[in-house]
Amino acid sequence: MSVKALTRPERKTVNRSELRQKQSATLRMARGNQVVVISANHEEDEKLLLDKRYFDEIVKQLGAVIETLEIISDQKLFKQILGVSESLEQKTRLGKLHSFEEAFGEE
Predict the structure, then answer these.
(1) How high is the pLDDT of residue 87?
(2) Which residues, including other chains, have CB under 8 Å from residue 33's CB and lie 6 or more apart?
(3) 51 and 30 in contact (C-beta within 8 Å)?
(4) C-alpha to C-alpha distances, 42 to 9, 10, 45, 85, nearest whole angstrom
(5) I need a labelling partner for 64 at 20 to 30 A (CA). Which of 16, 18, 77, 103 fits?
(6) The domain spanning residue 35 has which CATH number?
(7) Residue numbers of the domain that contains 57
């Protein structure tokens, strides 16, 4: 799923009585990056209804961002990564490295 789809969901708003009256149709509205906002009198009481795959993808991407930030914030580790990146690029260009499939036998 694209970054735009993950960060800019389409929102459809329904009130609680509409949800109760048209539950099946309302549940079908939550597909892909289309999020159903169940409105309430107070914003803190509003709920969101979203597609499980969409939610799982958001959680997966958030985890990847957190891991990246942890690596970048560890100055010692990040310097080590930057230090070997040039030699890895050179070895890759020269064909001296094995592919993931070659190394782990997955095709």
Answers:
(1) 82
(2) 1, 5, 6, 8, 9, 10, 51, 54
(3) yes
(4) 22, 21, 5, 51
(5) 103
(6) 3.40.1620.10
(7) 3-95
